[in-house]
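Checklist before submission:
- one chain only
- standard amino acids only
- sequence pasted in full

Submission:
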Amino acid sequence: MQEKNGEHPLGDAGQLILFGVFMVLWILDSFVLHRSTFLANTIPLTLRLIILGVALITAFYLFKSGHVVVTGDQRPTDVVSSGAFRYVRHPLYSGSILVYFGLTVSTASLFCLALLVVIVLFYNFIAGYEEKLMEAKFGKTYVAYQKNTGKWIPHLGKKGSR
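Returned file contents:
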């Protein structure tokens, strides 16, 4: 398999498979079987829904701002360090992880939490692969961007690349 446009060759398929597995597990555990959602009785629903709301709002921003690299007629030809890329190097992946996190917290499904760990590991793997491609393509410019920008979480106290 060949990489396409700087992405891991299994990135799209892996994301779709994990999304399908997560949604089936989340729906079954949270609304039908209730095998691992016993913590929902101890964590107030209001708190869980606030966390879900914040996660979804943040994910929406990351998706909207991060799509500059995958939409439109022409992809950027230089390192993008504006919008969400000013804060994190992988806003689309970060947004996806936040959606999974929000859904997991909303129903307190421990099975989904375990699957979320697998999902984060998968995203970290494909992001690492893509970062090597970016470093090979953009060299010192990308390395400097990496130093100033968090991979998943913004570097607190740093201005980031601009």
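Reviewer check: The chain has a mean pLDDT of 91.
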